[in-house]
Specification:
- By secondary structure, the protein is an alpha+beta fold.
- Helices cover 66% and strands 9% of the residues.
- A hairpin with a 3-residue loop joins β4 and β5.
- α1 packs across α2 and α11 runs parallel beside α12.
- The radius of gyration is 35 Å and the shape is elongated.
- The two termini are 66 Å apart.
């Protein structure tokens, strides 16, 4: 009877700790009753049915399932809170055992264990006040060092098994199973942590880019809107040119010159047809930079939201490398044409940056992507090599080829499926 009471008290302490790692308040639900019943079956099975005492450690698997079912949390949160519970449980249980075991000679062992678990309940209740356990749990979610701690715990467990084997010359099956399950939990924790860390970095980069290029996008939008107010005036001006033109040829010449000025003045209005402010803002800033260096810009941009398996901040990095490379490539040339084409379909994105160029051999094509190789001088040639590395992360390739129109162009093309 005392053993059963002791087990129930231990379950209550467990529920208090686990629930307060997820919430400020503890709400008893049917899951709690099922958890207590299943844990008691495991413990009593180990005590009275001749099962190995190590089987009682499978109760931790029950706690893990309980976390997932009751709180409907992610695997990462369940793993972190299970590790925190075990850590708190071991430390506090050791502390509570010190005064209790001082009475070992005078009190029955079952009564002693009941006292320890009663102290454990009080300790968990006090620590959990004002949401302390919840704060610890939330802090742990962002604490990268826990990955190293979890790995260390796994190695400690392996070391323990080796020592136990050396001392006893045999290993129990339950030792292998328990340590195996524990290692799997830690491995899942580390993998999920790394995934979420990568996703967090991507989100932060996206926010940073949005803050950077939103103003540029708004500036472009405001400029185009102001020019649209003068649209009717420009139309009237074109219609009225015949009044001042001396003859037909002069009229055509004046219209051509005036319309050319209008087209140059509104050359980037078509960028606004794209649906991604980050990409549009970035392209506009790079186009203005290229123009300031004497480049002639052409473009065809048909994008929606640029949603694909490559984050937008990575696409911006790739475009930046290609555009910087193109601007530098035409810097010393008489013809400084650069053309950018970005097309988005339902299942793929096509990106091409073209610039006026001389003809290179196939052998030189291969050198373009080698780190340190550059036609622009020593200490250059890292951009395309970095671009290839980025593309390899997403199983994409960089294609390089020539096309001949008015001038010979070298084309750097990326196709993202």
């Amino acid at each position: 009877m005392l053993t059963c009471i002791n087990a129930v008290l231990e379950m209550i302490a467990t529920l208090i700790c686990v629930n307060h790692l997820f919430s400020k308040r503890y709400h008893f639900q049917i899951y709690d009753a099922v958890f207590i019943l299943s844990e008691l079956i495991i413990i009593e099975g180990a005590n009275y049915l001749g099962l190995s005492k190590g089987m009682a450690l499978f109760g931790y698997i029950g706690i893990y399932i309980y976390e997932l079912v009751k709180f409907k949390c992610s695997i990462k949160v369940a793993n972190v809170n299970l590790i925190l519970f075990i850590t708190f449980g071991v430390v506090i249980q050791v502390i509570c055992s010190i005064p209790a075991f001082l009475m070992e000679r005078y009190v029955d062992i079952d009564v002693l264990m009941i006292s320890i678990n009663a102290l454990l309940i009080l300790a968990f209740w006090w620590i959990s006040r004002k949401g302390r356990l919840l704060k610890v749990s939330r802090t742990a979610m962002n604490f990268n060092m826990l990955i190293n701690i979890a790995t260390g715990i796994s190695f400690i467990g392996a070391f323990y098994l080796l020592v136990a084997y050396k001392l006893t010359d045999f290993m129990r099956v339950t030792d292998y199973i328990i340590f195996g399950m524990w290692t799997i939990l830690i491995a899942v924790l580390i993998i999920k942590w790394q995934q979420e860390k990568t996703e967090k970095i991507a989100r932060e980069k996206e926010i940073e880019l949005r803050n950077t290029y939103d103003d540029v996008y708004k500036q472009l939008l405001e400029t185009i809107r102001k020019k649209q107010h003068d649209f009717h005036n420009h139309i009237n001006a074109v219609y009225s040119l015949h009044i001042v033109a001396g003859n037909y040829n002069e009229l055509v010449s004046m219209q051509k010159e005036y319309c050319g000025e209008l087209l140059r003045d509104n050359r980037y209005s078509r960028l606004l047809s794209g649906g991604s402010p980050i990409i549009i803002g970035f392209l506009y800033s790079k186009f203005m930079e290229a123009e300031s260096r004497g480049c002639s810009i052409g473009y065809e941009v048909k994008v929606d939201e640029m949603k694909c398996r490559i984050p937008q901040y990575k696409i911006v990095e790739m475009l930046g490398i290609l555009l910087d490379n193109a601007i530098e490539a035409v810097a010393e040339r008489d013809s400084k044409g650069i053309f950018v084409k970005i097309c988005e379909s339902a299942d793929s994105i096509y990106i091409a940056v073209k610039n006026d160029s001389e003809i290179f051999s196939r052998r030189e094509f291969g050198r373009f992507i080698q780190p340190g190789y550059s036609t622009k001088g020593i200490g250059r040639g890292t951009g395309l090599a970095n671009l290839v590395d980025m593309l390899m992360e997403y199983d994409c390739k960089l294609n390089i080829y020539f096309e001949k129109k008015e001038n010979t162009r070298i084309v750097f093309m990326i196709h993202i499926n």
